[in-house]
Amino acid sequence: MSHYSHAKFVLSAPDIRHLGADQGVEVAFAGRSNAGKSSALNRITRQKGLARTSKTPGRTQLINVFELDTERRLIDLPGYGFAQVPVEMKKKWQRALGEYLQQRKSLKGLVVLMDIRHPFKDLDQELIHWAVKSNLPVLALLTKADKLKSGQRKAQLLMAREASLAFCGDVTVHAFSSLTGVGLESVEQVLNQWFGLPGKQAPTEISPAS
Ligand SMILES: Nc1nc2c(ncn2[C@@H]2O[C@H](COP(=O)(O)OP(=O)(O)OP(=O)(O)O)[C@@H](O)[C@H]2O)c(=O)[nH]1
Ligand SMILES: [Mg+2]
Fold it and tell me: Interface pTM (ipTM) of the complex?
C-alpha cells in the first residue's frame, strides 16, 4: 500500500501568505514549465486527475498543496522558464516561487524535474545550487524517460549523475516516466526518507540455528 495514494487536494495559493500553517514536512516539485511536475504527482499519488496537467506550458500558475496527512504535504509549484508568458505574470510567479523556496520552514526536500533529453538547463542549475546552499536535499528527476530507448536512457542517467557531482551537495538523480511508472519505486524511497515514513520492509532474515 502506497503512502501517497490517499493524497488530497487542500488549496491553491497565489503566494506564501495564502498557504496554511508553516509546520510539519513539505516536499515541493519544481522545474521548467512542461517538465512533467503535475504528471509525476498524479503518478506518485495514483490519482490521474489530482494535479492538472496540460500540453500548454504554464498550466500550473499557483502553488498547489496536496496533503498526505496533517503533518505531510506535497507541493506542485508553478513552472519556470516559459518564454511566451507575459512579463508581468512571469514576475509574479517567480516572486511567489522564490518566496516559497526561501521562506518556507516546513520545506524539507526539493524534487527538481527535468526532461531527460535536456537536463540541467541554466534555471535548473540555479535552483539546485540554491537548494544545496540552503542545505535542502534535492531529487533530480529525469522525466519522460519513456521518450528514450533503454541504452540512451542509461547514458543520459549516467551523464546526469556525473553532472550532479558538481553541485557538491545532497543531489540524487533518477530517471522517471509518468507514463510507464519507470523510477516510481526509487522516487518513493526518497520521499519516504524525507517524510520520515517507513520504506519497503526488508525480507525477514532467518537466523541460522545455533
Ligand atoms: N511521454 C511522456 N509525456 C509526459 C510525461 N510526463 C508528462 N508528460 C507530458 O508533458 C506535458 C506536460 O506535463 P505536465 O505534468 O502538465 O507538466 P508541468 O511540469 O506540470 O507543467 P506546468 O504546470 O506548465 O509547469 C503533458 O502533455 C504531459 O502529458 C512522461 O513521463 N512521458
Ligand atoms: Mg503543472
Answer: 0.98
